[in-house]
Amino acid sequence: MLGAMTGAAGWAASGSLLDGVARAADTAPCTPTAPGTRTSAIALAPGARSAWTADAGATTISRVRVRDLVRGPARDVGGSPLALTLTPDGRTALVLTATHDRPGLVLVDLTGTATDRVDVGAAPRALAVTADGRHAWVAGEEGLLRVTLADGAVDGPIALGGRPRAVALLPDGRRAAVTDHTGAALLLVDLRRRRVLRRIATSPFPSELALAARGTRALVTHDGYGATGVTLVDLVRGRALRTLRTGADPAGVAVDARGTVALVANAGDGTVSVLDLRSGRHRRRARPGGAPRAVAVAGRRGIAVDGDTGLLTAVPLTKGPR
């Protein structure tokens, strides 16, 4: 899950949740690689030449060469990895291990062999790293915790309530957006004053999120029964704008560097939606099959990860040669 991916998307700022429904689109060709193991997350390294996957079916994270999606060496993290991100310099992987298997925050030195484990409560769920790489924010049922990466010091939690599922840091570094899965809301949190500024109502069961339009908008997926869309949220006005239709059970979401394209993994029907963020419509729909749950955008193509098998699939964002 990559926290604050921002761009300059030209969203229309008006309309209800039912406006701008995306329509059926052409099917994109996919280039799958061999399956790995059950996978929960993917994070791109700086420069997007490599990525790391969280191998939830094992206790490892694995390096992937983006050019051909070939898996490389794996690193053990001592528990089943749930969420993953990298520091901006690409030297450290931050991994949350799951509640059922040694919950904690694991810091993995990708340039050497060292690993460190930090206690972040019994039920950590999501994390994001600051732009300067000095701190991580971890969201869980205990609240939102700040971790100083140099020494592993943990500040007391910011109370959130509910069950956080994803967190993204806004570009100003002073606020965070957090999905509240049980509260059907996106929380806007003031990190300096340590309080929730707004609870923005969304469709039920908000799950993953990605930022767009230079951090002024958020795309939120929903994993409730029968969910078929992502919510576009205006973070400036503090309201949901509309629902953009996707496939069934949307899970992971990512936005390209320019903020013009979003990639959504639809775990319920084995598809990946490529959304045009200017119009809110489908640009195309890829069908890798399986249960895609995590996505990343590297240049002009996306990468989708099958949550059940670890299968990696290249998804072109535009028509024609990649």
TrEMBL record:
Check the record and name the InterPro entries matching this protein: Host-pathogen_enzymatic-act, N2O_reductase_N, WD40/YVTN_repeat-like_dom_sf
**Highest taxon of the lineage:** Bacteria
* Protein name, entry field: YncE family protein
This protein's species is Paraconexibacter algicola
**Lineage from the top down?**
Bacteria, Bacillati, Actinomycetota, Thermoleophilia, Solirubrobacterales
